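When time allows, look over one protein, given below as sequence and tokens. The question is which stretches look regular and which look disordered:
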Amino acid sequence: MADFLFSSERWSPLLWLDGLRAQIPTACVLCNGRTQGGGLCTGCIADWHYRYKQVRWRCQRCKVAQLGGVARAASQCQSCLDSPAVLQQLAVAFDYMMPLDSLIWRFKARHQLRLAPVLARMMQQAILRDGWSLPPDTQVAYIPSRPSALQKRGFNPAAELARYLARLLGYGFMYGALGLQQQDDGNAQKHRTQQQRRHYAQHAFVWQSARTPSTLLLVDDVFTTGSTLQAAAQCALAHGVSQVYGVVLARVPWIM
């Protein structure tokens, strides 16, 4: 099963359609208000940025947001303080909360592929918001899907996002750079505890590319404990990649 719903032969016409869509009036994908380009309206964009900034506290490394409670004095959460950094930096487009989390559900569960360029632009904005300066030869890769998830959806959400994001940033795109070494689909990732996720992720990935870029930007959709992204980054580093950055659509927050 391929990572993409559309083959590379059909990709160019789709990009042309995206360019055409950007020039015509459309409804906001979140509130149905008037906008242009098939994305978010100005009001929803402003609300998105406001919500990200107006949290009680946010870890400067894993970007977990604390909702409620007393703001912490430390710049990092205890989990990050207790473990060595693998990613150079992590960018998060938004916290996994209403109403923006509905975009992920529509994209993944309802197969609304038209949201891929919209969500990729949000990831691009997250990188710009954090002020990253990546080398021009940076390559973009993605977290592979489990076979059962690919069979169910027909596409890998992270791969679709990575392909659009690479185009937006002007970086190279690495198809299938990472593969799954373990094929255990009996216990889906979302049902595992944090300890189970970390144990599973330690040996989950294999480097499949003949190329070894100096800088790699890893793309995933939702960051829960970080074990998946960390393990994928460790796999890349073990195979000669010098530095790995990560970007995700959403980060699951702490609710105090």
Summary: Residues 55-255 form a domain with the Rossmann fold fold (CATH 3.40.50). Confidence is low (pLDDT under 50) at residues 5-11. The radius of gyration is 18 Å.
